[in-house]
Amino acid sequence: MTPRRSVLVRLLVAAVLVSLCSIAATAWLATRSTTVAIQQQRGRALADGQQELRHVARVRRHAPAMGRRRATDRPAEPVGSSP
């Protein structure tokens, strides 16, 4: 191999290695950020679900004591019909 060709081969190998490293780093960053986003979303969903359960329990606990009935406990009234 001539010295000129040897330098070109080394530059090509270096460029390929840099490209592979940048692709790997980009893939790692994308995976990491996606994982963090999914974990945050799960935490929010869990907190929202627990808050909803507390709210439903509070309503069920206090609504009967106040003499209120849910709208679904009474029959529907006909709409637009003459008596």
From TrEMBL:
Region (Disordered) location: 60-83
* Keyword annotations: Signal
Q: Bias regions of kind Basic residues — which residues?
A: 60-69
- Its domain of life reads Bacteria
The signal sequence is 1-24
Q: What name has this protein been given in UniProt? A: Two-component sensor histidine kinase
